[in-house]
Specification:
The chain is mostly helical. It has nine helices and four strands; from the N terminus they run E-E-H-E-E-H-H-H-H-H-H-H-H. It folds into two domains: about 45 residues, no CATH class; about 150 residues, Orthogonal Bundle (Hypothetical protein af1432), CATH 1.10.3210. About 55% of the residues lie in helices and about 5% in strands. The strands form two sheets. A two-stranded antiparallel ribbon has the order 1-2. It is globular.
């Protein structure tokens, strides 16, 4: 089987093989129908609609929450806190995208993700992270320590007020997806206006 990353498609025989439950190593089909090679992602197959959809469906904390809490909702919280503290639309956009690679890899719980045996998984995520940040014009903010600081600072709040909160009524994934997309487009517009 062959995969051509230049066209973002799998040939007809491979598409049939994938449809019948087979797979092409390292290649996944995303919501838009495009195929992405996780080991060699290219910007042409990265679409914000796919990212927003997947992140709104992926649950934080390995799904061990009282109610659904998506990576997209978490990313909106990180972006909001960055905006409050720094008033920088580009930094806020980078914060919104700080876990965007999880649209393709899923959200792995921290204790496992940072185990030395998971180096290949982290490398795939790091490459996706780089391609996504480059595509959306925030490559210079890749791994900005202010984003990681906010991500870590809100974690205890997330655990108490969201993960363990039995009475929380989570927003529907579609509501979160739309909020993520709206925020993304607003930040992109504001980032272009900021000198």
């Amino acid at each position: 089987m062959t995969y051509d990353p230049g066209t973002s498609t799998v040939n007809d025989m491979d598409a049939d093989h994938v449809a019948l439950g087979g797979s092409v190593v390292g290649v996944i089909r995303v919501r838009s129908g495009a195929y992405i090679d996780l080991f060699d992602p290219t910007p042409d197959v990265i679409h914000i609609q796919d990212i927003a959809h997947a992140l709104s469906m992926v649950c934080r904390f390995g799904g061990h929450t009282a109610t659904h809490y998506s990576v997209a909702e978490h990313s909106l919280h990180v972006a909001s806190q960055l905006e409050r503290q720094y008033r920088d639309p580009r930094l806020t956009l980078a914060g919104l995208l700080h876990d965007a690679e999880e649209a393709y890899t899923g959200d792995m719980v921290r204790p496992l993700k940072h185990d030395p045996s998971m180096a290949m998984f982290r490398a795939v995520g790091d490459t996706l992270h780089l391609v996504i940040h480059d595509k959306f014009g925030v490559l210079d903010l890749l791994d900005d320590p202010r984003i990681k600081a906010i991500d870590n600072e809100i974690l205890p709040w997330e655990m108490a007020m969201i993960r363990d909160c039995e009475w929380r009524v989570p927003p529907a994934p579609d509501v979160v997806r739309r909020a993520f997309l709206d925020r993304f487009h607003a930040l992109r517009a504001n980032a272009k206006e900021t000198p």
